[in-house]
């Protein structure tokens, strides 16, 4: 069984940048986290260190669950629309600017944290925030999220499968359009049929290569 991080290592992990996973610590501390697979050293200057997915999981395990207002963005914290929210953010130019800014920020995060700087492949943050990441890709591409009435618009939901989300859309053409958007954003997508009701849905996972 893997030993848990030391108290000093936990402090470094807990102090990581919440968005990028960038770490600050002594060379000894950072090297120890790399050796344990909890961090990696970026190959390009300035050779900063970032949390791996395993490091993110340790960090998030110690974080309290967000309050409902924070999770939905009601306190000004951006949250992509996953579809079906009772109190969804208002649409319009301001929301469009927020979504575009969040998407550009995510692309920059990919550039900074993917070892090869790839922009067409999801990064570690996306792998630990699957529903939000997939929803952001869809919303940024202009797909309409479902409101409280799920008859129209996408809905992104977690699944029991590791690194996979389900995307539901009542309209077949819009469902296929969602699949094309996610594939372009670096996700592997397959179309499936629910055992009950025979509704079609997407199963999407972040592409690794």
Provide a quick synopsis of the model:
The chain is of the alpha+beta class. The protein has helices spanning 7-14, 27-35, 53-61, 68-72, 93-113, 124-128, 130-140, 172-184; strands spanning 39-41, 49-51, 155-158, 165-168, 187-193, 200-206. α5 packs across α7 (130-140).
What's the average pLDDT? Answer: 84
**String of helices and strands:** HHEEHHHHHEEHEE
Structurally, the number of domains stands at: 2
Question: Strand order across the biggest sheet?
Answer: 3-4-6-5
Which range does the strand content fall in? Answer: 5-15%
Structural class: alpha+beta
Question: What would you report as the Rg, rounded to the nearest angstrom?
Answer: 18 Å
Shape: elongated
Number of helices: 8
The stretches of 5 or more residues where confidence is low (pLDDT under 50) are: 64-76
| Helix content percent band | 25-40%
**What is the straight-line distance between the termini?**
29 Å
Q: Could you give the count of β-strands?
A: 6
Biggest beta sheet attributes? 4 strands, antiparallel
Biased composition (Basic and acidic residues): 11-22
Region (Disordered): 1-22
